[in-house]
C-alpha cells in the first residue's frame, strides 16, 4: 500500500493511493497516518478497508501532499553509510555505525519548500531511504527481527548545514536539525511492497542535473543491521524513522534551486530552496 497525508499544514487527512492512482480517504478508518496506524494492527485495518473497495475518492487537483507520517517520534540517522560518500568526505570508514538524531520537527512534505538557515555557508542535500518503524523493539538479536519491525519506506532528503555540523563544535544535530531540513514522502510504501530494500536505485537531480546516483546495496551496513545495532542504544517505537545514509555526490544549494529525489519502487519528491532567515526570525 501507498499511504499519504493530504491537505493544508496542520490539517492533513490520512489517505491511500490505489493501484489506479486515485487518492482514497482513510479518515473513516484511522485518525491519521501516525504511530498507531503503522503498527501491524493499524496496517491490517487499512488493508481490510482498502480491500472492501468502498473508500471515498478525494479530488486530487491542487491538493497539497504532506509528510506521510504525522508526528514522528525519533529520527535516527546513520552517517557515512555508503563507502563512496565516506571517501568523498575524506574520513576513514567508521569501525561502528555513526548514529545521531535529527529533530523530528524537521520533517515536512515532499513538495514543501526547504529553507536555508540564517548565517549558513554550506547547506547541502542528501537523498536517503527512510525506514519507518512499526513496532516497539529493543536489544534485537537478528536481521529477521529487525526487518519485522519495519512498517514501510519513503524517500528522504537529509538536508545538512556542514559548517554548523562540523566546524562549530558540539554534536552533528546542530547542522542537521534546522527548520524544514527533512523533506519526506511522497508516501509511505508498506514493507510488503518492498520485501528486499537492499537493491533499490536512488538518485538526486539539482536543477535538472544528476548529482547523486547509487543503490542501497552499496550501504556499508544494511537496513536490518542498522536497526539491530541502534536497538542496543535506543528503544524503538512505532512512528520512529531511520535515515539510512546517502551515496556520494552531495553539494551546496542556494535559493531558487530545485531538488528532485527518487528511489526505485518508493517514489519521487521535488522541493524548491528558499532563504529562510527572514521567514523564521523570532517575533517575541
Walk me through the structure.
By secondary structure, the protein is α+β, with helices and mostly antiparallel strands. It folds into 2 domains: 2-52, no CATH class; 75-275, Fumarylacetoacetate hydrolase, domain 2 (Alpha-Beta Complex). Helix content is 15%, strand content 31%. The chain has helices spanning 40-52, 83-89, 143-148, 162-167, 173-176, 223-230, and strands at 2-6, 13-17, 23-25, 75-79, 98-102, 107-108, 114-116, 123-124, 127-133, 150-157, 160-161, 182-190, 201-206, 209-215, 241-243, 258-263, 267-275. Strands 1, 2, 3, 4, 5, 6, 9, 10, 12 and 15 form a 10-stranded mixed sheet that branches. A hairpin with a 3-residue loop joins strand 16 (258-263) and strand 17. It is globular and about 55 Å long. The chain starts with a strand and ends in a 9-residue tail after the last strand.
What fraction of the residues are assigned to beta strands by DSSP? 25-35%
Helix content: 10-25%
CATH C-level class of the largest domain is Alpha Beta
Q: Give the CATH H-level superfamily of the largest domain.
A: Fumarylacetoacetase-like, C-terminal domain
| Rg from alpha-carbon coordinates | 18 Å
The SS-based structural class is alpha+beta
**What's the CATH architecture name of the largest domain?**
Alpha-Beta Complex
The first-to-last residue Cα distance is: 44 Å
> What is the average per-residue confidence, as pLDDT, rounded to a whole number?
94
